[in-house]
Design a protein that fits this description.
The protein is mainly alpha-helical. The protein is built from seven helices and no strands.
Amino acid sequence: MLDKIRLHAQGKLPADYKRGTGTDGRVCRFLHIEYPAIVERTLAGVADEEVLEWCFMHGRKPNEEEIFIFNAFLSKRGWRDNQTEELEQMKRERSFSNRSDIQTFFDFHKADEQED
């Protein structure tokens, strides 16, 4: 998310790139932090680890079990869940329909970044 914030500020993302929604929104809700606050800290030149510590101090600091569950949830998003059709639509739009290796949103974004 922080890398995308920086890329957007440099004008390196498409104009229609959705910021602060989707996974970004989930992360913000998980940490109880508003997206604009993360953008502000990130663009102030603060290191990633410091942004995270700031989030823990001003939002919430989840415990190890909560982090494990959240990471597992995100890593499987799009695979056999209520977002599968959205992922399949994104694959069709990006001409990835034949890519059986793309089963999650993380897979999609990784493949999409490699294409550019």
